[in-house]
Amino acid sequence: MGKKKDKDVDAEDHGKGQRSPKLCGTNYPVSIAFIVVNEFCERFSYYGMKAVLTLYFIHYLHWDKNLSTAVYHAFSSLCYFTPLLGAVIADSWLGKFRTVIYLSIVYVIGHVVKSVGAIPDVGDSTVHVVLSMLGLVLIAFGTGGIKPCVAAFGGDQFDEEHTEERRKFFSIFYMSINAGSVLSTIITPILRGDVKCFGGDCYALAFGVPAALMVIALVVFIAGSGLYKKSPPEGNVLVRVCKCIGFAIRNRWNNSKKSPKRSHWLDWAEEKYPKRLIQEIKMVFRVLVLYIPLPMFWALFDQQGSRWTLQATRMNMDFGGGFIIKPDQMQMLNALLILVFIPIFDMGVYPLIGLCRIKLTPLKKMAAGMILAALAFCAATVVEINVIKSVVEPPPAKESLVQVYNLMDSEVTVQFPGHTVFSDPLKSYEDPSGYTSLPLTGESQLYTVTVTHNGAEYQCGLTFTERTAYSLFLHTAQPGDTVCKLVKDHITKSETGAAYLRFINTHTENINITVGTEEFYAAADYGISQNISVPRGEYNGVVCKTNSDQYLIDLGLLDFGAFYTVILSKVGNGLTFKKMEDIQANNIHIAWQVPQYVFITAGEVMFSITGLEFSYSQAPASMKSVLQAGWLMTVAFGNVIVLIVAEGAGMEQWTEFLLFAGLLVAVSIIFSIMAYFYTYVDPDQLDKIFREDTDDEKVESSDGKKNEAVSLTDMPKQTKM
Fold this sequence. Notes:
Layout: H1 2-13, H2 31-51, H3 53-59, H4 65-94, H5 96-117, H6 125-156, H7 163-193, E1 196-197, E2 200-201, H8 203-223, H9 237-255, H10 275-291, H11 295-301, H12 307-312, H13 332-355, H14 362-387, E3 399-406, E4 412-415, E5 436-439, E6 444-453, E7 456-465, E8 468-478, E9 481-489, E10 499-505, E11 511-515, E12 518-522, E13 527-528, E14 532-534, E15 537-539, E16 542-545, E17 550-553, E18 556-558, E19 563-571, E20 574-583, H15 594-617, H16 624-648, H17 653-676, E21 679-681, H18 685-692, E22 717-720
């Protein structure tokens, strides 16, 4: 064991003191090219998989929207908890290089398992769920574990004197992240929707390509092995901080009655830990307290891939000229806009605000970012209110929905005893006026419906069940006889924007109809076909076959999310049809989502980037990784908030959006109050203070008493908020 450990350390030490080759005579190490390509492929892998995840849950695993949203955010949350584990492994045990390799292998295995789980022929639905969840857990440990290592490992490749090159490297590194995100959120939805496999959307391919990119990322990273500077593990400061805090708590608990009180509870750690470490932890705690309200921002921000994607599925996605965007491709707007907004804010917005003599401190920027995110959800609320106008909501308990088709030769009146649901006469072959609510006395109820046609009354006994939608078809079986046919309806719109279609055959022969790749069968004499979804598009030259003949009909456009009933009739030697729209098509264009993406991205620029800048400026150099861990925790807990609301709130989507907006406004007010009382400090002054008052000794004061430990009140102050 000892030899193996020494060998591992030697491997990490290899290249530590060597100067790696430079790119084209610059001060940029060749090794960073491998790291940037690795990051691009890894981000493509992660965001590409995540882009189609919500729709995968709904269409492949057949989960409802709330469960799909909850699992999506549980996965996102785990991806931001696991970086803590990755940092501890890298700093305390394996080092950054080997941590990236080992956890990337876990990452690849997760992708492969996830892809296999998306193959319908592999097992049953239980196997698919188990493989999908196992794959997601492995991916979360992989992506989260390498998250704190790759960027830091890239920074390690530079010589100390090349600070400007290192700064530019991080800009390039950030660009590679966004480039991978943009391309993946464009490509993987295309692989999902436009490529068909196993009789439906090809989720196996949509997950398989990100898996292949992660394999490439791993191979590229290993290929640069001989060029890297590899530093040995130096101990994880987060572990040391936790031990110091734990000792302070235990010491205070054990000795609070015996020893004199101390100015700060962390001072109880002085018996074992240096005063400098204690002072640095105090500084970190002051920032971490400000982190408490921050998860609410991420609760809103990360819904782009869940609730906003589901909203997009119920919108018109046609931009004309044959260009149709997919609902899960809208997420690319965030990555595109972030690249545009960063220079605009840095070189335009912030300087203009400065010219107005408004001092925009980091905490003020963060509060403004929260307000912008809340505005994004206000915009999403307005869009949602208009989107649901074309949606038929399922009826509640003790209610049914019913619409009537009059296929008689003249108008009829329909009467339900005790109710006036259809008070006006219904014209022959008229489009139904929409679904009408029918109250029931219990879970089901028998209604004796009176139909009046040409002065004659007919009665039909019809049983309606709660929470169900029906179509009532009225037609003549023979002269003087009226038939009432009650059919259960499917009213839930497709999450892919597909249209639903059914046929009613008034002909005396059975008819087989082919619409695209879908086959319909309608029996003779008012037989009704199944209600089947077909992709949105123009359908001309639809083939209708009977036993004796073949006909072509032009159905025209079957639009996003619409439900159609097509009535086929034999007239002379031809076949005629009437297309009726049962449920309105998605008439709100997806471009109306752009304002909410603009607001949320502007909020991200002001909140996220500024938040990291503020955190780093207020923490000592040795504590920056601790604050990075704290920052990632805010993202993780933000996703937990969405998980709880999605599963527990049970409210309409537009009210949920409004709830999140209101909560973030309230949180931003609390944060602003906390920020007002926050006083900026200069962590660099610690060096000066501790040169005068070392960790190992206390300077005796003039009256012979020892000075107290350095306090934050001794630090040079800057402005508030």
